[in-house]
Amino acid sequence: MFGIDVPIFAFSHCRDVVVEVSKAGGMGVLGMARMSPERLRRELAWIDSHIEGKPYGIDVLMPTTYQEAGDLKFDPDRLFPKEHLDFVRGLLDDAGVPPLPSADADAIVRELLSELSFTPAESARMLEIAMEHPIKLIVNALGSPPKALVDAAHAKGIKVAALAGRPKHALRHKENGCDFVIAVGTEAGGHTGSVTSMVLWPRIVDAVAPMPVLGAGGVGRGRQMAAALALGCEGVWCGSIWLKTIQSEVIPEIKARMFAADSDDAVLTRSVTGKPCRTLRCAFTDAYEKPGAPEPLPAPLQNILWWSEGRVRVERVRAPDFLTYPVGQIVGDMTQQSTVKDVVYEMMDELVEAQQRLSAMFE
Amino acid sequence: MFGIDVPIFAFSHCRDVVVEVSKAGGMGVLGMARMSPERLRRELAWIDSHIEGKPYGIDVLMPTTYQEAGDLKFDPDRLFPKEHLDFVRGLLDDAGVPPLPSADADAIVRELLSELSFTPAESARMLEIAMEHPIKLIVNALGSPPKALVDAAHAKGIKVAALAGRPKHALRHKENGCDFVIAVGTEAGGHTGSVTSMVLWPRIVDAVAPMPVLGAGGVGRGRQMAAALALGCEGVWCGSIWLKTIQSEVIPEIKARMFAADSDDAVLTRSVTGKPCRTLRCAFTDAYEKPGAPEPLPAPLQNILWWSEGRVRVERVRAPDFLTYPVGQIVGDMTQQSTVKDVVYEMMDELVEAQQRLSAMFE
User: Fold this and answer.
1) What residues of A are in contact with residue B193 (Cβ under 8 Å)?
2) Are B229 and A330 in contact (CB < 8 Å)?
3) How large is the ipTM?
4) Right CATH number for A8-67+118-246+349-361 from 3.30.450.30, 3.40.50.300, 3.55.50.30, 3.20.20.70?
């Protein structure tokens, strides 16, 4: 479908990762959530001038999902029940994380909010910009892409795919004209369902056959890639593994926390976005697990609450206990920094070993 | 290690399943929790006379874990906080599940309790009885088997294994002299950890290498077995899949609920035993998820609360909404009854297909 050498699709917010994976024979896919049109233009131009003609794609949140956030105006005291604001503020105050300087606070928060709350028109504009570049793939991260967008992409020779955590979602993507689906097991970083890759992938493969399926969730090494192929997938979709690379966007303090983490430190929590999202455990996610904590607000409010009140305060002083990032259970295998190229080559080496071991067992 | 034809280990409380799996070339393992010494003797004698000399094993809860229950005397009003008793009783009363006839109630509950609360001496006696039979394997379901037991088993040529949900538990089993470990992903039925098979199996394989590992959790078909081998396991340990067979101990009403269930109806809940246990979702597990429900009691109290107050009342009238059974996420693939033999043969057929598909991708 893309003329790539190895069926590794790399989701990353980092243009360097996208370029390196595509140059290593896989397919980089740029996550463009929370990016302004100007920044998107810059990032894609940079990719085009470095990727040496190799194919790449973009990952978007489609218009329909933006609408709910688009209608929100930022006014913390009106948007958030007092109990929730007090809970987050109290948590950070008690931990000695300083409040934002009042002059900066409003500006920082407004900028964040403007990135979070695209209107449908703005996000359509983002897609237009992306389609002016030689992208080969558009992936929808939440829900099914609208038919009109699928048709527009296909008219330009661009393939369209979408993520699915249940067979019925995968079937809807197929009906809407997607070219393939990405089956996401619960062990993945970010928003996930509750069914594991081992159980989910073959169910989705069977549900949409003969449409190709990529396995996502729990894939960071060659043996897991071999398992994906054995389970009927045509390739893999990886996100977390790139966070450990020197190219990744993750700050050193968060990387250090990831390298020290075990698999069950990647917790599924509603505290960060309001929807179940697998994230590196931290003082913030722990606080929401304790008796007496408020139930997280529905999406997108919890996300805005955390980004506006929490994350800016925390990242400004890099308060270690509160630093977090979406990551999957493979974080337990991530113990040291590496390059994107080495990750791809090690995966391929171990994939070949795994396949040879399996063949030998059958002889 | 056992001279079996196919590396499928079948955990079952049902002697027929044990015999059929071993006769089909795998290895049946009888779960003997909640069995009196007399019944164990009868079951093993029955197995010996039907299994045609094929190897089989037993799965036990070792003495150390019995102690806590052994000290409990049954007195619901003393054992259980009033809030908890009222919650369970109220739930069943509201749903119209009749209370037990008072003449029977005490006797039924006492019998249940006597099965749940072995003393260490009694459980050692159980193991002695088992070792008088030609068993080839003892599996410890909870914790590491004591060194003395491992030595006693080895002296009789019996292998010993144990279940592990984390690499450090697997390492402890190795130190205690186990011959292999069973790595249990969160998608398994019954007590499980939080890490999925895709992530956990290769981590445990690497942690205890070159000791063999069986993959458990999410295995009900050949592609999942191929994935286990690709991930570095030497075979698989399956429990849930046998529940759908005509040989299984599960009553028809529960089977019907399983056939209608989706993968995410196998919920991880503390409401049944006090520890995280993956179980078919029912009105009882749902009730504990609602705001205002009590926190489940610690093990083994929650288990006794449910078995004594709940399960007997529910199963006596087969109240459909409350019927449940431990089962893994593969329940979503279980849609109709089958025989044990057909399950084994279908798994092997699909395993071969998966391996051939993988080989073809490499040519």
Assistant:
1) 264
2) no
3) 0.94
4) 3.20.20.70
CB contact under 8 A, B333 and A232: no
Is B229 within 8 Å of A193 when comparing Cβ atoms? no
Residues from chain A contacting residue B217 (CB–CB below 8 Å): 196, 198
Q: Is B355 on the interface with A (CB under 8 A)?
A: yes
Please tell us whether the domain made up of B8-67+118-246+343-357 is placed in CATH 3.40.190.10. Answer: no
Whether A326 contacts chain B with CB within 8 A: no
A361 CB within 8 Å of a chain B CB: yes
Domain residue extents for chain B: 8-67+118-246+343-357, 73-116+249-322
When CB atoms are compared, the residue of B195, B230, B361 closest to A223 is B230
For residue B159, the tally of other CB atoms under 10 A from its CB is 19
Q: How far is B132 from chain A (nearest CA, A)?
A: 35
Grouped pLDDT means (10 residues each) for chain A, 363 residues: 96 97 98 85 97 96 50 63 90 91 69 64 85 97 88 97 97 97 98 97 98 98 98 98 96 96 97 94 95 87 81 86 96 98 98 95 87
